[in-house]
Amino acid sequence: TRQDIDMATSPEPAPAVVTQADDGRLISLAVGAEVPLRLDSSWAWDHPAVDGDVVTLTQVDYFADPGFTEWIVTAVQPGDAVVTAAGAPNCGDDFRCPPTEVRIGFRVIG
Q1: 70-100 burial string, b = 16+ CB within 10 Å, else e?
Q2: What span, in angstroms and rounded, lies between the C-alpha atoms of 51 and 74?
Q3: Which of 4-8, 37-41, 80-84 comes out lowest in average pLDDT?
Q4: Residue 1: pLDDT over 50
Q5: Cα 20 from Cα 1, distance rounded (Å)
Q6: What is the mean pLDDT of residues 68-96?
Q7: First to last CA, the chain
Q8: Is pLDDT of 48 > 70?
Q9: How far apart are CA 11 and CA 28, in angstroms?
């Protein structure tokens, strides 16, 4: 289910790893900070879209499947951005893992 992000709320401190459980949250990062974004391999994820130019995403490639798809979110300048990732079922069971979308807000503090 799609979560709307209330950009008027106070952002939460960044967790050690951002996951699907952070859907709908607004996360605070300092300029230059990096946080991994890991999405469960039960879905085949498109490269996430970034609305805004305050964070960049760099995909992490693994030789062996770690059970997730990972990108490094890097805060590049102050402002707000929303990262949206769309996932198609990858588990062979559309009922257990139907198509999904994850939206996470980032507020970058200078």
Answers
A1: bbebbbeeebbbbbebbbebeeeeeeebeeb
A2: 14
A3: 4-8
A4: no
A5: 11
A6: 91
A7: 32
A8: yes
A9: 5
**Residue appearing with tokens 């707000």:** 80
Kind of pairing between the strands at 68-75 and 100-109: unpaired
Beta strand 43-45 with 49-51: parallel, antiparallel or unpaired?
Answer: unpaired
Q: Strands 12-13 and 26-30: what pairing?
A: parallel
Q: What token pair was written down for 58?
A: 């760099």
Beta strands in 1-110 (DSSP E): 12-13, 26-30, 34-40, 43-45, 49-51, 55-60, 68-75, 79-89, 100-109
Amino acid residing at 57 = L
pTM of the complete model = 0.90
Query: Is the Cβ–Cβ distance between 80 and 7 less than 8 Å?
Result: yes
pLDDT tens per residue, range 54-73: 999 999 998 888 999 999 99
